[in-house]
Design brief:
- With about 140 residues, the chain is an alpha+beta fold.
- The protein has 2 domains: about 80 residues, 2-Layer Sandwich (Beta-Lactamase), CATH 3.30.450; about 50 residues.
- Helices cover about 45% and strands about 20% of the residues.
- It is built from 3 helices and 4 strands, in the order βαβαββα.
- The chain has a 4-stranded antiparallel beta sheet.
- The longest helix is centred in the C-terminal third of the chain and has 49 residues.
- The radius of gyration is 31 Å and the shape is rod-shaped.
- The protein starts with a strand and ends in a 6-residue tail after the last helix.
């Protein structure tokens, strides 16, 4: 959807002014790639927020080949509708598994309680009908 280039001092390349450094940008300036799904809360990301689309925000450090130093950070936004569908599908599958496990657990527990209750009732009936057990 869009991209931005940041200098190592936190200056945005296209406008040449310093903006507050976000947590993702700060992490990328240390040389680590950062990706966040649907969490566009940076000050300069107003147009991305207003799009109303699910976005994947990625901070990718650009390293100098011979020294490994961070020379810039590329921030880009990817439209993540497919990712959102996959995430929703995975959540649904997880809930189905949890529901199936819970229902199975309670069915087994209910069967055990029912069997124990029946055994107690049978023993109680046997003690009242059999004179050897009566006192």
């Amino acid at each position: 959807m869009s991209f931005k280039l940041w200098r190592p001092d936190g200056t945005k390349e296209e406008i040449g002014r310093k903006l507050p450094i976000s947590e993702g940008l700060q992490t990328a300036l240390t040389g680590k790639m950062v990706a966040e799904y649907d969490n566009v809360d940076d000050v300069e990301s107003e147009s991305e927020r207003e799009s109303g689309m699910p976005l994947l925000e990625v901070y990718n450090p650009v390293l100098q080949p011979w020294s490994g130093d961070v020379v810039a950070v590329l921030e880009f936004y990817e439209i993540a509708t497919d990712f959102q569908h996959s995430l929703n599908h995975a959540r649904l599958q997880c809930w189905i598994v949890v529901l199936a496990f819970t229902m199975t657990f309670f069915a087994i527990l209910s069967a055990l309680v029912f069997k124990g209750s029946r055994m107690i009732d049978d023993q109680r009936e046997a003690s009242t009908t059999c004179p050897a057990f009566s006192r």
